[in-house]
Design a protein that fits this description.
The chain has 194 residues and is mostly helical. It has 10 helices and no strands. It has a domain of 131 residues. The protein is globular.
Length: 194
């Protein structure tokens, strides 16, 4: 059995300074690069993969960094791990201990919280979820929600433009001939549906 490298589980990581992860270049990875030792690659249509790709993690990281004014101390866990764990807890209606167990057992949840490959051990102690919750205020979450809303509007606008482009290229150049029997059939169908 292939054993993944151990994670730092020190309680100080969540209470420490995230500037070490902020100062690094922000790296984003895709579900196709997540390494799952037993099952292969992740399904890109999984709800956790789609949600992870929709959340503006970089903006969340900037909001999270403001909570740590000092540049000294142990480095904190990433915002993706902290916020992602809270999202999992709320979405699945779990208690802290069960949240950590679910993350430990599920490669999709591990991808969601930002791990690059499957780990057999818990990524953090369940007591840290309380600290994560204290770090995120309603205003921070509202800001992220607004970012998601704006991204959704932009995505719909692009989709509409794509749909409009498709419809103009497939413009109908024919002529529709309708006779009385066609009108009668359509009228009967419409009346039977009422």
């Amino acid at each position: 059995m292939c054993k993944a490298p151990p994670l730092k589980t020190s309680r100080n990581l969540a209470l420490g300074n995230p500037h070490s992860c902020i100062n690094r270049s922000f790296t984003s990875f895709h579900s196709r690069t997540f390494i799952c030792h037993s099952a292969g690659k992740l399904d890109g249509n999984n709800r956790w993969v789609r949600m992870a790709e929709a959340i503006p993690w970089h903006e969340a990281e900037l909001l999270y960094a403001r909570k740590f004014p000092s540049k000294t101390g142990a480095s904190a866990l990433t915002v993706r791990m902290a916020l992602g764990s809270l999202i999992i807890k709320e979405k699945l209606c779990l208690i802290d201990q069960e949240t950590v167990e679910q993350i430990k057992e599920n490669p999709y949840l591990q991808y969601f919280i930002g791990l690059e490959h499957y780990h057999y051990e818990a990524p953090f102690d369940s007591s840290l979820l309380t600290h994560f919750g204290k770090r995120f205020k309603h205003t921070d979450l509202a800001t992220l929600q607004e970012q998601l809303r704006l991204q959704g509007i932009e995505r719909k606008k692009k989709q509409k433009e794509t749909d409009d482009d498709d419809s103009t290229s497939l413009a109908n150049k024919g002529r529709l001939l309708v006779d009385a029997t066609c009108w009668w059939s359509a009228n009967c169908i419409a009346n039977s549906l009422r």
